[in-house]
């Protein structure tokens, strides 16, 4: 782990997530630098004292020389070009990402850089804001950071990626890519759609409704304030898993509508939701329980990490 602590990190994309990662790592004294295509973003990052460049070839050549861990931090539509650049300029570097879908990213990496050493990642952190001005070095403190964990994952590469998450202040949640995508469809991507619908229904009522709107409308529609192009890239990149959750949501709402129309009651949907919220609070408000008894690299280590993560445990080593 000593080598991982000082190993440079090269971040491709300096928006909210990538920029925040650059800031927290650099602030802690770890060698970290990044690329962004926007010269304005680069100028702002440099003015704040961070190492940034608008030249991807130059940044990646530096990463190759440093044996840096490269972090993909662009929206899904821009990933193919970034992966191609990595394959050309820094093919031997370990590659990870901070994108909110995992199976689609893995497919893009496999197609554009078949020989890549790739371990996916996804920090469960963010705000409705975007761009360098929204970055925050404390963004990941106490957050959950999924790190792709499969039976064929290289243990040294896994430790390097997990170490970045820990250095940023996050807990590591080991998971398979498909399990991750199903989970985030339910707890992140579907809420974006329901927030959009709630916001549209509220705004379509009247200005009076918006004047009266308070906590339930504000909190229930917060993520609808995220830039639409970023939302679409995230949601459409996880279409298969999202379709399944969306279908369940529609079925539950349809049943609630029918029960209200026919019996004047929404008891079932409200009671189910209340129980589910209490189950979430029991996990979210408790101190995370650490994964125990696993040495990364031992026989069956990845399977055991996944098994314990499905019991809501986190990796903290």
Describe the structure in your own words:
This protein has 14 helices and nine strands. The protein has helices at residues 2-6, 16-27, 39-47, 56-66, 79-89, 103-112, 155-167, 177-203, 207-212, 215-220, 228-236, 239-263, 267-284, 301-309, and strands at 9-12, 32-35, 52-53, 69-72, 94-97, 117-118, 121-123, 144-148, 171-175. It folds into two domains: 8-175 and 292-309, 3-Layer(aba) Sandwich (Rossmann fold), CATH 3.40.50.720; 181-284, 6-phosphogluconate dehydrogenase C-terminal like domain (6-phosphogluconate dehydrogenase C-terminal fold), CATH 1.10.3660.10. The protein is an alpha/beta fold and 317 residues long. The strands form two sheets. Strands 3-2-1-4-5-6 form a six-stranded parallel beta sheet, sandwiched between helices. A three-stranded mixed beta sheet has the order 7-8-9. The N and C termini lie close together (10 Å).
């Amino acid at each position: 782990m000593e080598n991982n602590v000082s190993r440079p990190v090269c971040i491709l994309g300096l928006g909210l997530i990538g920029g925040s990662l650059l800031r927290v790592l650099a602030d802690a004294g770890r060698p970290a630098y990044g690329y962004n295509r926007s010269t304005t973003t680069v100028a702002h990052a440099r003015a704040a004292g961070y190492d940034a460049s608008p030249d991807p070839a130059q940044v990646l050549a530096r990463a190759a020389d440093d044996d840096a861990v490269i972090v993909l931090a662009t929206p899904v539509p821009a990933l193919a070009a970034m992966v191609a650049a990595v394959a050309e300029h820094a093919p031997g570097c370990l590659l990870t990402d901070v994108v909110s879908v995992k199976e689609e990213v893995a497919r893009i990496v496999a197609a554009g850089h078949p020989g890549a050493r790739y371990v996916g990642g996804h920090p469960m952190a963010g705000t409705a804001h975007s761009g360098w001005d929204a970055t925050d070095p404390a963004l990941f403190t106490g957050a959950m950071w999924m790190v792709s964990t499969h039976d064929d994952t290289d243990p040294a590469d896994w430790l390097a990626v997990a170490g970045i998450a820990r250095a940023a202040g996050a807990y590591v949640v080991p998971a398979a890519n498909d399990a991750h995508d199903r989970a985030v469809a339910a707890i992140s991507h579907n809420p974006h759609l329901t927030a959009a619908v709630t916001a549209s229904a509220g705004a379509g009522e009247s200005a009076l409704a918006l004047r009266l709107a308070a906590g339930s409308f504000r909190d229930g529609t917060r993520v609808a304030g995220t830039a639409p192009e970023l939302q679409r890239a995230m949601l459409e990149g996880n279409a298969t898993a999202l379709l399944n959750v969306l279908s369940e949501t529609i079925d539950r709402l349809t049943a609630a509508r029918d029960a209200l129309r026919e019996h004047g009651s929404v008891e079932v949907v409200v009671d189910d939701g209340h129980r589910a919220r209490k189950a979430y609070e029991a996990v979210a408000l408790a101190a995370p329980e650490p994964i125990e008894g696993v040495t990364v690299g031992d026989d069956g280590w990845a399977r055991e990490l996944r098994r314990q993560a499905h019991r809501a445990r986190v990796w903290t080593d």
